[in-house]
Amino acid sequence: MGYSAFQILKDALSGYKGLKPAWRDAEPKDGGYDIVIIGGGGHGLATAYYLAKKHNITNVAVLEKGWIGSGNVGRNTTIIRSNYLLKGNEPFYELSMQLWENLEQELNYNAMVSQRGIMNLIHTDAQRDAFIRRANSMLFAGAGAEYLNADDVKDRYPFLDMKNARFPIKGALAQPRGGTVRHDAVAWGYARAASDLGVDIIQNCEVTGFSIENDKCVGVKTTKGDIKANRVGSCVAGSSSRVMANAGIKLPIESHVLQAFVTEGLKPVLGNVITFGAGHFYCSQSNKGGLVFGGDIDAYNTYAQRGNLPVVEDVCSGGMAIMPMIGRVRVLRTWGGIMDMSMDGSPFIDKTPIKELFFNGGWCYGGFKATPASGYCYAHLLATDNHHEVANAYRLDRFKYGAMIDEKGVGAQPNLH
Ligand SMILES: Cc1cc2nc3c(=O)[nH]c(=O)nc-3n(C[C@H](O)[C@H](O)[C@H](O)COP(=O)(O)OP(=O)(O)OC[C@H]3O[C@@H](n4cnc5c(N)ncnc54)[C@H](O)[C@@H]3O)c2cc1C
């Protein structure tokens, strides 16, 4: 099904009576599937799409316990970037950025990909050195990077508190190709394209267990009955530990809630995404004018999708430290999503000890920007049995060998990643 200006005009003239749902709401097939993906978030839907599109595997089902986009893909603060330092990460996130750049054409769907740029503020001389090192790594990977001095930053945003006594702003690392994407449209775009290629998207279908025979996964147990599958890929983000526990697998992942905030609409004031370098606060302005921002995870483990007031206070104090003008803006909405925090802050795309059962998760705060590459590389692994070269480091057993991908060098402390 294609969208075109002509089609929109035709629909308008016919009172939109001929509109059809963008994807088929399927029921499980008796005969089962070649591949079953658990989780209809961005990553699960992207995986199904690339399986069908790149590898011609269309006998695929995506099982979603709620509705498409009800998880983190529809809850995040929409930031995309490929400004990483380590070689296990940077090529992967750069592939993701390249896929974002062509996503709307590929899916024929308006996901509002906006490469408005991202600016990481610098507050100390040591941080400047660290960011310049990261910028060099980004330049080597073709991601692009710019260093802005304090005057450049002030010219761009005169309302920033450049001379804050605790956190003076000394410059910024910018990635002009970073930006934002309308998050739920990503789920809808992939769902529509995957469904067109024959993938079954099955909503309100919770996976409650695995059918395992002789150490081999042969299907899943669900609230819609048992479903047979030659291969199963879990892709459930914040619910990873709970789902994989059904197969007896313990993951190096903790679940925490991360909150997001949106204010009343303002006139255009913030052209980029901007991040505070001395604490956790990141902010962009939505196309409707609201400031969309977030900060730290709530420190305790939880599967609840709502957070607590101390973190609200902490996030707002981060915002006030760099842009005191937001103290006068009213917050309209806040919400939360469950984060799958891995112990080194980097994700997993891997096989498991159980044959034909695969795992994708551990995306922490940053999995939205990874959506296209995660789907692309997970589909590659599921279809070929081989890790994609840019996702080769995302192994579950890397802690055994000390091969951590600890971007910030902070160790096994989820709230610091
Ligand atoms: C507040 C917030 C802000 C964020 N900001 C950013 C950001 O700015 N940039 C960025 O890159 N990342 C950000 N993230 C992280 C990012 O959103 C996630 O890492 C990413 O969306 C996770 O992948 P997903 O889209 O597949 O997850 P989800 O959308 O959560 O998909 C997982 C799906 O699995 C389903 N599921 C769970 N259990 C079962 C089961 N038993 N059976 C069937 N289905 C099941 C869930 O219902 C869910 O729909 C943010 C996250 C939050 C919560």
Summarize the structure.
By secondary structure, this protein is an alpha/beta fold.
Any overview of this molecule?
This protein has 417 residues and is of the alpha/beta class. It has 2 domains: 188 residues, 3-Layer(bba) Sandwich (FAD/NAD(P)-binding domain), CATH 3.50.50; 157 residues, D-Amino Acid Oxidase, Chain A, domain 2 (2-Layer Sandwich). The chain contains 9 helices and 18 strands. Strands 1, 2, 8, 9, 10, 11, 17 and 18 form an 8-stranded mixed β-sheet that branches. An 8-stranded mixed β-sheet has the order 5-6-4-13-14-15-12-16. Helix 2 runs parallel beside helix 6 and helix 2 packs across helix 9. The radius of gyration is 21 Å and the shape is globular. The model has no long low-confidence stretch (mean pLDDT 96). Flavin-adenine dinucleotide binds next to helix 2, strand 12 and strand 16.
